[in-house]
Amino acid sequence: MAARPAPEDLGGGVWSVPVPIPGNPLNYTLVYALESPSGPVLVDAGWEHEEAWAVLKDGLATFGMDIADVHGVVVTHYHPDHAGLAGRVRAASGAWIAMHGADAAVVRMFHDAVREDADRSWESAALRRAGAPADEVAVASGEGRVDPPAVPDRELADGDLVDLPGRALRAIHTPGHSPGHICLHLEDTGRVFTGDHVLPRITPHIGLYPYDLPGVDPLGDFLGSLGKVGGLPADQVLPAHQYRFTGLSDRAAEIVAHHEERIAEVLDLLSGRPVSLWDLTAGLTWRHPWAEMTRQARRMAAGEAAAHLRVLERRGIARRAGDGEPLRFVVA
């Protein structure tokens, strides 16, 4: 695991505060603070955790900023390592929280679902449909669970300018990693904040949840979104993880090529004989052997496999075999 870097003044009224993600191999989220006459605006906020909260406050203080002076938090997407602390920042400062409308809808739905089903039985139902064995379906109490983030005050759409007085920070809708993921183009400096959409060495998780959710194609959306940002005039790319880099267009093309290879690998496991989503997922190549992966990792892997299968379905190359359980697939 790479060491967490120190807070850094990036020049041009932009600062970086690496906020820890306890127990996660990503190690930290890069939270950015942007200068404005009304107080700093944060791009993302970090994971909801006492250590993360202390590091965020201390990191801002390094540059003479008080958490109570934050003007707003624009969240690239609703995931907990990005939106988790936004509610605490708002409580401490009165700041607004903004995210794309599609992710705001997910957050509201998440709150409603947890309120109505505290045991989150939908997780077990999804695993049964995937064809997971009984011991995988039995969800351990609290395993891998996080609370939904704060509901935003403001919703953004593609092309909207964020409330950053005196500067031009434009939202670019880049769905895939989440339905409402946004990148942010700071037009007065040529910098692009990519959240998790484009990272310098790794690719974000693209999953379909539930595994057979109709009418959506997260990986197809993601591949299209990569083409959208690849043409931006970006002098510097500021992602939410790892490190800053240049060459946005080239990196976007590399990620597209990676997923095309992955789509081909999924197709190689299909034939005229139906295979369950779970068995197909187990047959794919992962960073760690399938038998050594945690239950949470296997569930996420199934979501990724389902997203790649959806692309194959949309392309007319694969199809569902019947409508019953478990989900099974064949070549078209």
Automatic annotation (TrEMBL):
All copies of domain Metallo-beta-lactamase, residue ranges: 28-241
Please report a single Pfam family linked to this protein.
Lactamase_B
Q: Which SUPFAM superfamilies does the record cross-reference, listed alphabetically?
A: Metallo-hydrolase/oxidoreductase
- InterPro entries assigned: Metallo-B-lactamas (IPR001279), RibonucZ/Hydroxyglut_hydro (IPR036866), Sec-metab_biosynth-thioest (IPR050662), WH-like_DNA-bd_sf (IPR036388)
Q: Which domain of life is it from?
A: Bacteria
What name does the UniProt record give this protein? MBL fold metallo-hydrolase
Which lineage do the record's taxonomy fields give for this organism? Bacteria, Bacillati, Actinomycetota, Actinomycetes, Streptosporangiales
